[in-house]
Amino acid sequence: MKKGIYLLTSLLIVGSMLVSACSSNNSSSNSASNNKPNSSNTEAAPAVGLSEPFTATDLTKLPAVAQKRTDTIIVGLTDPSGAFTPYFQQSGYDGNVSSLLYASLVNVDEKGLPVPELAESWDVSEDGLTYTFHLRPDLKFSDGSPLTAEDVAFTWTVLHDKAYDGDSQIPALKIKGGLDYKEGKATSIEGIKVIDPQTISATLEQPNATAVTMLGSNVLSKAYYGKDYKFGQLDYIKKLHANPLGDGPYKLEKFIPGQEVRFVANEYYFKGKPATEKFIYKTTEGDVWQFLETGEVDYASFSATTENIDKLKAMGFVNIIPYTPSTYGFLQVNLEHEQLKDKAVRQALTYGLDRKSIYVDATQGAGSVANIPVSPISWAYTEEGINPYNYDPEKAKELLDGAGWVVGTDGIREKDGKKLSIHFLGSKNSNTDIFIAVAKENFADLGIKFEPEVFADFNSLVSKVEGGDYDLVSFSTPMLTDPADGILQFVDGEIKGYDNPKFKELYDKGLATTDIEERKKIYAEIYQLLNDELPVIFTSYKKTVYAYNGRIENVTVSPYIGLAGSLPSWSLK
Fold first, then answer.
1. In the beta sheet, which residues pair with residue 104?
2. Average pLDDT of span 304-310
3. Which stretches make up the Solute-binding protein family domain (predicted)?
4. What whole-number distance in Å separates Cα of residue 185 and Cα of residue 192?
5. What are the CA-CA distances from residue 195 to residues 32, 139, 200 (Å)?
6. What span, in angstroms and rounded, lies between the C-alpha atoms of 316 and 100?
7. For the purposes of burial, counting CB atoms within 10 Å of the CB of 113, is it exposed (0-12), middle (13-18) or buried (19 or more)?
């Protein structure tokens, strides 16, 4: 297992603020971004109770501590590791920090389509192989030094170094000469051309529909991060994590592990200095509701249940925005375990698990069941030819019988002298409690021994997964910009034991064209394949609500990049 459950592509842009990582059923103060693992047990979508933004009704109820803040906004976040350099992050929470420190060449709009950021425009050659980016004039890093095409070239190059072990998918684009550089056969990458200080191009060996957003991610300063660069030696960059040099809306002032991450506005930010001088990620563990109610934080996110929405409205001093992120939840299946190699067993587990009770009913209707690896908000989403796997224990038993698993005298199925058991891993929260309660009953009815293990620390859970000691583990994806993002784990080796040539053929085909209608057809075929084979068990789509201090203005939310796009414009009235 790599550093991230997902090695996503265009998600490296902007650093999305996903609102459900490691959350409880009732609330989620945490933001998780980019291409790193997130706890699942998701709350799902679509929600009930709030279809339009809600405006605070009585700001006099705002706690005094929040009223007194004039130049600082505070948001809750799970404690990051401190690796704040893009492409080298250890968690999605590191990504939330770097999303304020770094801008990207390209952003995405509310439909997930690329829009200019540091690059004011780009061109694509007729053969779809060469991408030329035109940078805005007079770009600067946060120390005032110039940002030019040389910095972009350095960034793309260092990601091809043989010592690079991060999650960037830029090497997977197959830039011409990239492999030769990685293998030490060349001292530069043939396909990367610096045309002038504001213009740079990359030529690929084959077309890739995600190339614009993938190449258009964060830029590292060559003068700062490349000063000590020697091919094959990247450990020196780790020493720079604590003192990042970016080009985003904020600069890092101080990181106090277990307490907070402090930022100050970047006067050199290309869109202009942010309206609010200071920003703080509060990383102290505690009750999210209490933090919001007492004014200790200005923002929090919650499962979009009727109960939560009514409670938030009753506060009087918060604005509320309903939000459906471009994510999906899933149960990762250990395909290296013999009993789970059988598709019939995986299908039986899906039929035999009452997902509606777990992800919809238990969240007061704030959710929907997922059956494919793409969010309903995506242009690629379809239900055509998709098996919904409605709860059907008799169908599940039939499949298990057919697979040779016979109910023993103790009520547990067995085959070839081995009992059928499921070792489940989950993060400690109320969602996990609900899952375990329902799954234990469901699987007992099927004749399956269910053995749950719960982790208070998410990193400990990931370590357990890396060791392979599990059958099912609950995760959710980061935000998915392109449909290719949601299926990458099935082709890059992240899901060990899944190796289907037909899927790989379709995956490559889906990236080889930029024609949306053609891609829709290809992904529809991919979804039918994965829906049948179930290399993972898809669980849910989630719906959340953002609740924030009614004094904060200019807050907008994108299903693909969350709050990150509007955050530099936030101001306190």
1. 218
2. 90
3. 114-488
4. 16
5. 36, 17, 5
6. 29
7. middle
Half-sphere exposure of 253 (CA within 13 A, CB side): 14
Q: Check: CB of residue 335 under 8 Å from CB of residue 498.
A: yes
Whole-angstrom distance, CA of residue 119 vs CA of residue 97:
22
pLDDT tens per residue across span 204-261 = 999 999 999 999 999 999 999 999 999 999 999 989 999 999 999 999 999 999 999 9
- Distance between CA atoms of 104 and 247, rounded to whole angstroms? 9
Q: Are 32 and 78 in contact (CB under 8 A)?
A: yes
Helix axes 343-351, 516-533, angle to 10 degrees: 90
pTM of the predicted protein model: 0.79
Per DSSP, 80 falls in state: P
Alpha-helical segments (H) within 20-102: 64-68, 92-101
Calpha distance 273→249 (Å, rounded)? 7
Buried b (16+ CB within 10 A) or exposed e, 223-239: bbbbeeeeeeebeebee
Q: What type of residue sits at position 163?
A: A
Residue 23 near residue 300 (C-beta atoms within 8 A): no
Most confident of 41-45, 311-315, 556-560: 311-315
* DSSP letter (8 states) at residue 362: G
The Cα–Cα gap between 24 and 427 comes to 9
Strand-strand pairing, 130-135 and 114-116: unpaired
Q: Mind listing the pLDDT tens digit for each residue in 351-397?
A: 999 999 999 998 777 778 999 999 998 999 999 999 999 999 999 99
Burial of 50 (0-12, 13-18, 19+ CB in 10 A): buried
Burial classification of residue 398, based on how many CB atoms lie within 10 Å of its CB (0-12 exposed, 13-18 middle, 19 or more buried): middle
Cis peptide before 478 (omega within 30 of 0): no
Between helix 501-511 and helix 516-533 the angle, nearest 10°, is 160
Here the tokens at position 177 are 């000469």
Pick the closest to residue 91 from 459, 486, 428, 562 (CA basis): 459
Classify 46 as helix, strand or coil: coil
Question: What is the residue whose two structure tokens read 């509310």?
Answer: 110
Q: Which helix (H) or strand (E) holds 453?
A: strand 449-455
**Which pLDDT tens digit goes with each residue over 53-108?**
999 999 999 999 999 999 999 999 888 989 999 999 887 789 889 999 999 999 98
Rounded CA-CA distance 335/172 in Å is 24
* Cβ-contact 349, 537 below 8 angstroms: yes
